[in-house]
Specification:
Number of helices: 20
Radius of gyration: 24 Å
Shape: elongated
Largest sheet: 7 strands, parallel
CATH architecture of the largest domain: 3-Layer(aba) Sandwich
Number of strands: 13
Low-confidence stretches: 79-112
Mean pLDDT: 86
CATH class of the largest domain: Alpha Beta
CATH superfamily of the largest domain: Glycogen Phosphorylase B
Strand content: 5-15%
Strand order of the largest sheet: 3-2-1-4-5-6-7
Structural class: alpha/beta
């Protein structure tokens, strides 16, 4: 490929959500795995960038923890760190002295930024950089203005545009994706996590050049593999029954995930067919308000409440055993930018039921039962099909295992690096 590419990689996310909690979402794992594969590639040099100074020390510790043998070159700290600190002090002053006009406030902020940055020569600092890659956040102005650097951003979805009713807060500027969207243009380059996501972005942001948007399918960790022999221990760890068959779901409880319908239809399936040997296990997400919503949806919910079991946040090492032991996995979301949990389930040999919308067909293909997310009848029919048809469960499990092997973080990273070489 010629000379090595020097990549300035914004790794802020790794420091922000390093703790093993529900906040460490699929985005964290995406950033981690891409950086991991970049680090293995002999054709690139990696320079680490931290876009918030307050996370610099923590990011250094995180990198040493997950990449003890890393050959990362430098840790660049964006001047926005101290700027944000000084801006917060100015904001307090403005609140105390309301006589300041809006124009005057803007003048002070602008003057402050110039004062903080006047001695920082970003072009000199980044003279060796070929590509700036942001796996999450917007590109800071200091980098944006350097024409010699090719800029790439990874885009996930446009859920707030497609489903604004799920975002009750009118102040959209507080979300991390808003500055990213405001920067979208026809000069920079972008990766999307599916073909469908590319289609959505190009359709809703006509200022983007479709030829500069490259889909890169994600993958799941190599730790996701059949581990049924460990299922019993993992069930016991979360105080879950070991003498029952179970359906498994892993997601947050946001309405888009459609979990209330999936659970409601499970109860109808149990009631209709007099099922007495199965429970529904829910992993991940907050439990607050979920039972109350179920009680409103199902008049006799109290009668079936013991069949709906919460595992809560599940440790990484227990995910594969719980996927592996499930009769099937349910993920009938209203929309997904990619849909990682179904791929994880397939990698563990677990049959899946997913929606037939957005990017999910790209992930599941013909290896699962795909249904309309808003159809109760199709949910119940899918449950019945898997429950009464062992051969279909077995066939889909085997097909899913084979298909899952087509996805890899190496393939994802190699596609990105190949694109970098084409544009520098």
């Amino acid at each position: 490929m010629g000379k090595k590419i020097n990549i300035l990689f914004d790794a802020l996310t790794l420091a922000e959500n390093d703790e093993k909690t529900g906040n460490r979402s699929g985005i964290w794992f995406t950033v981690y795995n891409i950086l991991k594969e970049f680090a293995k590639n002999e054709n690139v040099n990696i320079y680490i960038y931290c876009s918030k100074k307050k996370f610099a020390a923590k990011l250094t510790k995180t990198l040493n923890k997950y990449f003890p043998d890393n050959n990362f070159n430098k840790l660049y700290i964006d001047s926005l760190g101290p700027l944000e600190y000084e801006h917060s002090k100015l904001t307090c002053a403005y609140k105390a002295k309301k006589k300041f006009s809006t124009k005057l406030k803007l003048f002070f902020v602008s003057a402050l930024k110039k004062a903080l940055n006047k001695n920082v020569n970003y072009e000199k600092l980044t003279k060796d950089i070929d590509v700036y890659f942001s796996p999450v956040y917007h590109i800071p102005d200091e980098i944006k203005n350097i024409k010699s650097i090719k800029k790439y951003t990874l885009l996930y979805d446009i859920i707030p545009i497609l489903f604004p009713n799920y975002f009750s807060d009118k102040d959209m500027d507080k979300y991390w994706f808003t500055p990213v969207w405001k920067q979208l243009n026809n000069n920079d380059y972008y990766f999307t996590i599916s073909e469908h996501t590319k289609k959505d972005f190009v359709e809703h942001f006509p200022q983007m050049d479709a030829d500069k948007v490259t889909p890169v399918l994600l993958a799941c960790s190599e730790n996701f593999k059949p581990e049924k022999e460990k299922t019993k221990a993992s069930l016991e760890k979360y105080n879950l029954p070991t003498d029952k068959k179970y359906i498994f779901s892993l997601c947050t409880l946001e309405p888009r995930k459609n979990l209330i319908r999936a659970v409601k239809c499970f109860i109808e399936f149990v009631n209709k067919n007099n099922i007495n040997d199965m429970v529904y296990i829910l992993g991940g997400g907050s439990w607050d308000g979920f039972i109350e919503k179920m009680e409103k949806e199902i008049p006799d919910f109290e009668k079936y409440k013991h069949l709906i079991l919460r595992a809560g946040y599940i440790d990484d090492e227990d995910l594969a055993p719980l996927y592996s032991g499930a009769e099937w996995f349910v993920y009938t979301s209203e929309y997904e930018g990619f849909g990682l949990p179904p791929l994880e389930a397939m990698s563990c040999g677990c049959p899946v039921i997913t929606s037939n919308n957005s990017s999910l067909p790209e992930v599941v293909g013909d290896c699962g039962i795909m249904i309309d997310y808003d159809s109760d009848e199709q949910h119940i029919n899918a449950y019945e099909t898997y429950y009464y048809n062992y051969n279909m469960r077995k066939e889909n499990a085997e097909k899913g295992l084979k298909r899952a092997k087509e996805f890899s973080w190496k393939k994802c990273a190699d596609t990105m690096i190949k694109k970098f070489y084409e544009t520098i």
